[in-house]
Amino acid sequence: MTIQKLSRQSANATTTGRKQRKPSRGATRNRPNHLPQIVLVGLLSIGGLAMVLPFVWMVTTSLSRQSNSAMPRTPTFWPPDPSLFNYEVAATSLPIERFYLNSLIVVGLTTVGYLFCSALTGYAFAKGRFPGKSFFFIAFLSTLLLPFETRMIPLYDLMSTLNWNNTYWALIMPFLAGGFGTFLMRQHISNLPDELIHAARLDGASEFRIFLQLVLPLCKPALAALAIINIIWRWNDLLWPLLVTSERDMYTVTQGLAMAGRSTGIHTGVALATATMAVLPVMIIYVILQRQIIQGIAMSGMKG
Amino acid sequence: MTPSLLRTLPVGLLVVGLAACGTGAGTGSEGGDADKSGPPVKVLMIGYPDEDGIDAVTGAKTPGIGQLQAAFDKANPTIKMEIVSIPWGEGATGYAPKTEAMIKANEACLYEMPAAPAYGKRGLLVNLDTMIAKDPTFKNLWGDAALESARSWGPDNPKNLFYIPNNAGVRVIHWDTKLFKDWGVEPLSAKPTIQEIETKAAQMTGKNPVTGEQNYGYWYQGKYAVWQFMAIAHAMGAHWGAETAEGKLEINWDSPEYLQAMEWFVKMSAYAPKGALATEGMPQGFLTDKNVVAIIPEGENGYFIPQLIAQPQMRERFRSSYNLKGADGLGGLNSVSPLAMAASCPNKEQAWTVLKWMASSPEAQAYYFNTSGRLPVVEGGEKSVPQVAELPDGAIVFDQVRTTDAVYPWAAEQPRFALQAQLEAALAGKVTAKQALEQAQKETDDWLSKQ
Amino acid sequence: MTIPKPSPADARPRVSAGRRAIRTGVFGGFRRTTVWYAFVLPPFALLVLFVCLPTAQTFVEGFYRETGPDQRQFVGLDQFANLGTTGVFWDALINTVLLGVAFLALVIPLAAILSAMLNHVRRGATALKVIYFLPQLTSSVAVALIFLYVFQPDWGLLNGFLHILGIDDVPLWLADPSFGLTGSRAAVTLLAVWSGLGYFILIFLAGIQSIPVELYESAAVDGATPLQIWRHITLPGLRPTIIFLVMTGSFDAMARFGDLWTLGGPSGSPARTLQSIVMLMYQVGFVSHDTNQAAAIAVVFFVIMLVLTVVAYRAFLSREFKARS
């Protein structure tokens, strides 16, 4: 997952100032360009249409009450009987707002915690000197070799032992510390000039103050990228919530949607109305923040 | 990363964090009724809606579980009862592990418990015969046959009554009179045979002579095809096996009767819409004037009863017949909902009163019916749901509930999933019926050997 | 995808070692040593509790069998031998690998072509990127739920279009458990390509833009055609990107769960054609409640991931880092 990232970082670190890092526009302009723009954009738009049509169909079908019992045999992109009936059904049978609240709490707290832990350890490994540093660093890195799926059953047992099932603890605590974030932050903090930190130390600032007031503000770009990745991971996770939450009031949006899909699946209109309610807010946020999100993902080589 | 995100991100996270603090403090402290004294009788109920809702097809109101609670409180002011409502769920968070956890922690007295015989076997349930013996006012409203078929093996008695049925689902064979008329085919009998269905389904598959539309003679719910298969097989004389006196299961799929049944089912699937294997529920257009399937087996209560009640104009067009019957006159999936009492229950007398009310009162029967079209199992229960009696085939629907096959003790276990997966492969023509049954047998044996 | 995937542990860029050497000379106070443990130990404790110990427990569980309530017996490699003889395990493994290979074989060429085209678009490139990336941001569960209906054979969106195009003998998609191009596996591969394409395009674009501009400039001077340039400069330059995508794609494919679970339930219907190895682990562990057998599957899963990581490490680091330095 991180390989590309690693190589690009090392390349950047060693060769800053090389033309590689030129903005893409400039690079494109310098290249010979014989392909007619209209053909290019046309072809790409056909592909783009294929990307968008299922979503459009989702929304239009969700607006048709008939689609619960008699779907038209040829797809229509305008409901024959437009109404919000399916949304009414979905909203009265599912506490969607509760699912959103759960997702916001879980995703928000895991992200804050994960960023904090990652920056904390990243700083220690980048700028700290203490006996056992290599041991701890290698220990953190080795956890990258341990897939979540391998530990999920004992982890589930642990949650039961702690009596954390059906609580936010189970959805948050196992995801606060991780090798990936530590590694990413260590890389970024390593690139910060030592002189800066040294000067702060000479001023008598404690390491923790240096961390909070000097280091953290300086790694905002890395933190933002890490935040985006973590938000996408946690928002979309199904496997773990499926294991530790059985009470509907604890469902996340993704889990609530999966369970609703299995129980209302026979009513296409209601199922797609539920899907729309789960997808649309995320899409709106995406469109607003699209540049940052796409940059963050391209920068880290990670995705949801 | 651009500055705008850097500004918005921390603010967003802060808001989320504050929201978390606010709600985190609030959860977990609900449901404390300080004004009541003494422990309430807790009842675990599965799959009922938490809130009042709206039926996706008819638009009718469906009552949430709170209405059952309210009806009970009204009828029994002296008893404190509390319903714990959970969804059916899935796997780790399904009703089964939740039930296990609750019974281990003595959390409830009464359980809606599909696996009641298994819990009884472990000595965790009350033999309700002991409650009946102590109850001078007891009247058997469920019928001797129903209670007899509910009895199962326990550590100290081979014939324990571990549960009393609450309500039941039903599976009938629907048929569309309009399509029968269009094709000039004789109406389906009330108790259709395998041969009758095969002949008529074949006749009505093709271009409809009146409308010119593509019609299909037959239907199956692909994702639950195993229950239709069991009905077919039972009608052909197959039997899955038995539970031994020690409570061990013996299961045999690899028999000539099952082979014949599966081959017949595969043959019939050719008369169904092609996508049937990937579906659950009824074909698109069912109970509307767009329907194109003539014979629709395994129509479940939830799919037709509320809809026919809401649309009187469809009642004469879509009729219902009995499910396939075997030589014993029985057939079709038995889907009673069993209500059991935990051995650990501290106030058994009160719990017994609650159980009887939940399993027989007209209010409770009406509630089950109004949420999901589930039917009463007590004698005279028809009166609690007069809407069904008004349907042209209401009598058949009620009688089908009483003439199902016996309960399958493996219904939620590996043998079912093994058989279902192989049945899907056979229906898709990926393996032969013989191969499918052999493989299902092998997987079932693996499972049985681990019991 | 929900979790960080394994990656080579020893990929620290050489540069930081150099910087550390400088700092060592500047700073050497001992009283500041202990404070670092306050930084490292709390996250380390979380890691031990929620990552290391459960993983170790999986390895222990895989060698036991439950013989009764709270009783278990050491059975050596029995659970693994048992896996080897059950067709269900091999089916799940083959499904997982097959779906992964088919997905990568489709998505990589497609993304390579589309990203090359997108790189030449002067106006509207951002909008197109956003659109192609849209499914990736939608959870795999939501996408699968939509496609449950898109793939419906009798009235779904896809077959509806095929009907309009005059194709009467439409594919059955999720109702057809065959290995063919119209079966359930083909359907979920289409779904994966549809939803993953945007990410692959994005990484390809980043790769294209990291190719030194001088190469293009000299090629332009030599009068090369765009196709020649793509073939002789862009494609070789994308080699590390492709290796990276194949490797990360393999990890994701091995861990596939959410969309298949939504489409086919825990047993991956129809006829178990959509059961991935993680779904089998889930089913064995939490539906059939055989924790030890599930742990054995988890161990096998770990070994496969480890092998993939070693391969990734060799393919990427040994060749790529040498080539670049």
From TrEMBL, chain A:
Region (Disordered): 1-31
Swiss-Prot/TrEMBL keywords: Cell membrane, Membrane, Transmembrane, Transmembrane helix, Transport
Keyword Ion transport: no
Transmembrane parts of this sequence: 38-59, 99-123, 135-156, 168-189, 210-233, 266-289
A GO biological-process term: transmembrane transport
Membrane topology annotation: Multi-pass membrane protein
InterPro entries with a match to the protein in the record: MetI-like (IPR000515), MetI-like_sf (IPR035906)
Compositionally biased residues, Polar residues: 1-17
Compartment annotation: Cell membrane
Keyword check for Ribosomal protein: no
PROSITE patterns in the record: ABC_TM1 (PS50928)
ABC transmembrane type-1 domain span: 100-289
GO cellular component: plasma membrane
Family to which the UniProt record says this protein belongs: Belongs to the binding-protein-dependent transport system permease family.
Protein name per the record: Sugar ABC transporter permease
Organism field: Acrocarpospora macrocephala
UniProtKB/TrEMBL annotation, chain B:
Cleaved signal peptide residues: 1-25
InterPro entries reported for this sequence: Bact_solute-bd_prot1 (IPR050490), SBP (IPR006059)
Highest taxon in the source lineage: Bacteria
Pfam family, one: SBP_bac_1
Keyword line: Signal
PANTHER family per record: ARABINOSE-BINDING PROTEIN-RELATED, DIACETYLCHITOBIOSE BINDING PROTEIN DASA
Name used for this protein in its record: Sugar ABC transporter substrate-binding protein
Species assigned in the record: Acrocarpospora macrocephala
Automatic annotation (TrEMBL), chain C:
UniProt record similarity statement: Belongs to the binding-protein-dependent transport system permease family.
GO BP, one annotated term: transmembrane transport
This protein's name: ABC transporter permease
Lineage summary: Bacteria, Bacillati, Actinomycetota, Actinomycetes, Streptosporangiales
InterPro entries, sorted: ABC_transporter_permease, MetI-like, MetI-like_sf
Main location group: membrane
Keyword Cell membrane part of the UniProt annotation: yes
Residues covered by the ABC transmembrane type-1 domain: 93-312
Keywords noted in UniProt: Cell membrane, Membrane, Transmembrane, Transmembrane helix, Transport
